[in-house]
Design brief:
The complex is a heterodimer of chains A (about 400) and B (about 120).
Chain A: H1 6-10, H2 13-20, H3 29-34, E1 38-42, E2 45-50, H4 55-64, E3 66-70, E4 75-80, H5 84-88, E5 104-110, E6 116-123, E7 130-134, H6 139-149, E8 155-158, E9 162-168, H7 172-179, E10 191-196, E11 199-204, E12 213-219, H8 220-231, E13 236-238, H9 241-250, H10 277-282, H11 288-296, E14 301-308, E15 319-322, E16 325-336, E17 341-349, E18 358-363, E19 366-373
Parallel strand pairs in A: 3-13
Antiparallel strand pairs in A: 1-2, 3-9, 4-7, 4-8, 5-6, 6-7, 9-12, 10-11, 11-12, 14-17, 14-19, 15-16, 15-18, 16-17, 18-19
Chain B: E1 3-6, E2 11-16, E3 19-24, H1 26-32, E4 35-39, E5 46-47, E6 52-58, E7 62-66, E8 71-76, H2 79-82, H3 86-89, E9 98-102, H4 114-122
Antiparallel strand pairs in B: 1-2, 2-3, 3-9, 4-6, 5-8, 6-7, 8-9
Classes of the chains: A alpha+beta (about 400), B alpha+beta (about 120).
Chain lengths: ~400, ~120
């Protein structure tokens, strides 16, 4: 088999042993390993890519029961100051000042030109400024951008003594009704402090799988004991990063650094909804002139969902062609276990971004027919309240 | 009387005279995880040892399969088109990939037998 493939690396323990000394571990790393997690380097951390059931079974389990993910490698931080929401708006296009108490919002950290450095969650779980959750791979860059960009107006404090888990799936609420009943009254994107097995935690009703569930920030010192309690319910299984990736791809969510980079603005990346009307009117975020011009005109390329018409998956880096001409590339792709076939997302020339457009995927030098497809590939299942 | 050979790339060859049936080992299939697509070589193609001849895609990743020996492809396992998961279920049997006519049987001397392969995997 290909010696450059990820799989081959799993087969070469000596290689990973050499790099393991440089890798950080999360407060849940040793538990994940004890639970059978196959540990691989990811964003500078040793993380479980899968457990014994394998990516497909873990994916399906999350869609039908409840999966528990260690996402402690992600960056958790507080932003404090006289008006941290107003300060943060200097770097993001979201309506931060409009985040009510006990609510969370998705927004984008922009570079000076309006390019997307990262996506992040910003919430107001209490009176202690804002809480931020950023992606692991760009944590240091994000923190540097926020600290220097907001110098004098707000202070960023990374929270190094906390773990972060996601519990996701349709049975999550009924399971947590006994562990953390008050949290089950929340609807999608609400957040707050709760008691979980006697410990103060910050939970939001959110996640990155398209399913109902919570993301829960735990005190690192008690993270293992709390997770063991949760896993005591046999409807909950630990899930690796492999299934996390296929779950988020099926619901059309972006992987930072892949499905957008600093080369894209929120418009081309299909995230125009993350630039609300009030901020468009104010036009005071980085790259506002360029981004607002793209809203009117059109960016040169757009992010779209793509379904191969055959069975071969088109993975990241696959070129997208039309009549022999390269008109885009795949940024995420693989097999969707719930969808039941190969799925991809990527960028194509804006005039070819319309749903239904027939394209070709250049897989290993051969053109495979494909079609631009509306995302999500699999219906999202967020909890928006009983009345909805 | 057929002989079983193995490569360090986790392929098996069942050799009978100058014909061979080729697949990946159960160990490889387990490492790859759930297999969702296999691209197989067409009959009639002439290949050299170490030429890329097939691709196996799992939920996780794509891996190339190299010709373990030189010769001509004589057939492939079309049943894998509709049921690629057969490779996970029965890697050494129903999950075979393709058949070859060997052009140089001396190449077999560079491969491992079952005992040597088992020892090789035990070291991984």
């Amino acid at each position: 088999m290909n010696k450059d493939s990820n799989v081959f690396r799993f087969m070469q323990p000596k290689v990973s042993t050499m790099t393991q000394s440089d890798l950080q571990t999360t407060p849940l790393g040793s538990l994940m390993q004890q639970l059978g997690g196959k540990m691989v380097p990811f964003a500078g951390y040793e993380m479980p890519v899968q457990f014994a059931p394998g990516v497909r079974q873990e994916h399906l389990w999350t869609r039908q029961s409840c999966g528990l993910f260690d996402v402690s490698h992600m960056g958790q931080a507080r932003l404090r100051g006289d008006d941290p929401a107003k300060a943060l708006e200097q770097l993001v296009p979201g309506n931060m000042q409009g985040i009510p108490a006990h609510m969370q919002r998705y927004t984008l950290l922009l570079n000076a030109d309006g390019g997307i450095m990262d996506d992040l969650m910003v919430s107001r779980p209490d009176e202690d400024g804002l809480m931020l959750v950023v992606n692991a791979a760009v944590k240091d860059e994000d923190y540097a951008r926020i600290s220097s960009g907001l110098a004098g107006s707000a202070i960023l404090e990374p929270l190094e003594d906390r773990a972060l888990i996601a519990v996701q799936g349709p049975k999550t609420a009924e399971i947590f009704a006994k562990f953390m009943p008050a949290a089950c009254d929340m609807v999608f994107m609400q957040c707050g402090h709760f008691s979980l097995f006697g410990h103060d935690v910050i939970a939001s009703r959110s996640g990155y799988t398209g399913e109902d569930g919570f993301e829960i920030s735990l005190p690192a010192a008690h993270a293992e004991e709390i997770v063991r309690e949760i896993l005591g319910d046999d409807r909950v299984q630990p899930i690796g990063l492999g299934a996390r990736d296929s779950l988020r791809l099926e619901v059309g969510l972006c992987l930072s650094g892949h499905d957008f980079t600093e080369k894209q603005t929120p418009i081309g990346a299909g995230l125009a909804w993350a630039v609300p009307k009030i901020r468009r009117k104010q036009a005071n975020f980085p790259g506002a002139a360029k981004i607002l011009q793209e809203v009117e005109a059109s960016p040169s390329e757009r992010r779209v969902g793509i379904c191969p018409l055959g069975k071969a998956p088109a993975r990241e880096g696959t070129e997208i062609a039309l009549a022999g001409e390269i008109i885009g590339r795949v940024t995420s792709g693989g097999f969707g276990p719930t969808f039941g076939g190969p799925i991809s997302m990527g960028y194509v020339r804006s005039d070819l971004a319309k749903t239904g457009t027939e394209l070709e995927l250049m897989i290993r030098g051969k053109a495979h027919p494909a079609r631009v497809t509306a995302m999500p590939f699999v219906q999202q299942n967020y909890y928006r309240g009983t009345g909805v | 009387m057929a002989d079983l050979y193995f490569t360090e790339e986790h392929e098996w060859l069942l050799v009978d005279g100058d014909s061979a049936k080729i697949g990946i080992t159960a160990y490889a299939a387990e490492q790859l995880g759930d297999i969702v697509f296999v691209e197989l070589p067409d009959a009639g193609r002439t290949v050299q040892a170490q030429d890329e001849v097939a691709v196996v895609e799992s939920v996780k990743t794509a891996s190339e399969i190299f010709a373990p020996v030189s010769g001509e492809i004589t057939g492939n396992n079309g049943a894998l088109d509709d049921a690629p998961e057969t490779v996970n279920d029965d890697a050494m049997g129903q999950g075979w990939f393709f058949t070859m006519k060997l052009s140089n049987k001396d190449e077999l001397s560079t491969l491992m037998d079952q005992a040597a392969y088992d020892a090789f995997v035990a070291e991984l």
